[in-house]
């Protein structure tokens, strides 16, 4: 994987027709080393993972749907089965769980998704927040409904890193959410953890890979 350049695109904005949701798209022009970290020297520092956190192993690449959860939107990104190309997808405006699920099912079917990656907002020490616990439960509920294995990754500062990388400060269209989901997926491809069925008691927040590269 490190030897392969993963084509991650530069962000471009396409305007939707009046009354329709704005759609974010990428153009695959920029090659990024798959082994490089997603952070830059300007990323704000935060503490190393605590002693209770799981040591992640690099997962086997496969078609994945990555979710950056939010109160109003869910940022989405996917990768090809070989984990070479990471692509942000149009963000999902959150509604009821059932309607969100139907929209995600369409992505999973069309992309032949084999697993979900969900970002959790751990604190600066890699410890769970109330919001992280809520997102964990939501991710598990989605994974059960979609009958897909799940991996949880630390999304601490992922939105900040995405805004810096793609110049999306102040974005309210949802592009930033999907850019953050793409960074989470890059992180998962480098660091794991491996996907696991949700019925296996292996997804407490204390076992999330907290060595966030985003």
Compose a concise summary of this entry:
This protein is of the alpha/beta class and about 210 residues long. Helix content is about 25%, strand content about 20%.
Which descriptors apply to this entry?
214 residues; five-stranded mixed beta sheet; 4 helices; YqgF; endonuclease; ribosome biogenesis; endonuclease activity; Nucleotidyltransferase, domain 5
Describe this protein's structure:
With 214 residues, this protein is of the alpha/beta class. It has 4 helices and 9 strands. It is 27% helix and 22% strand. The chain has a 5-stranded mixed sheet, with helices on both faces. A two-stranded antiparallel sheet has the order 1-4. Strand 6 and strand 7 form a beta hairpin. Mean pLDDT is 72; it is low at 1-55, 201-207 and 209-214.
